[in-house]
Amino acid sequence: MIDLYYWPTPNGWKISIALEEMGLPYRVVPVDIGAGDQFKPEFLEISRNNRMPALVDHAPMGGGEPIRIFESGAILLYLADKSGQFLPKDLRGRTSVTQWLMWQMGGLGPMFGQDGHFKLYAPEKLPYAIDRYDRECRRLLGVMDAQLQATGDCLAGVYSVADMAVFPWIVTAKRRDIDLAAYPAVQSWFARLRARLAVQRGMELLKDQRNNAAVDDVKAREILFGVRPTP
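The structure assignment produced for this chain is given below.
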């Protein structure tokens, strides 16, 4: 059994989608990041970086003690290896998927995250920051659009953990006033993935808790945006 330490955010959705796509049995351990659950000692034993998602596999390949993993990219690679799915075994195919997964981890995710912060949550609207990250998000979407035009249906030519990692961030485009119609290949790709039942199930996980989360609450904002709560 796999324990998924999770909250319904783009990084969390990556793993819930992957687990649903792979058909691996798992149970959810909610980590309410607005309430500061990510700072609890029991969670820090699993994720030293006090970030979710995190995962504990109680039945790892080869047996032995449970394996603890944090960082969504590392989790996706681990699950792909465990399930034997969504990560090609040949060198070229695996390298192609891995590079687009790293592109999400190092580029699309962080830039979309900063864009969302300065547009939606920052107490002071800073035009320079808003413009900087908006332009970078649009540049990255242009990169993605060109890749999808070249490869067809998916980022690495076949549906993979790279697509699962990128999809949750594209979900947030509308909220940040980015029209996917400007990126037709991305828009088509997004529609295809959104129609997948496993993707829908992954996105639904703890949906009610997300809808009820008090992101605009002062204390929650302090916790989410870098102020560690007093024990």
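Interim note for the steering committee: Strands lie at 2-6, 26-30, 54-57, 67-70. Residues 91 and 217 are 48 Å apart (CA to CA).
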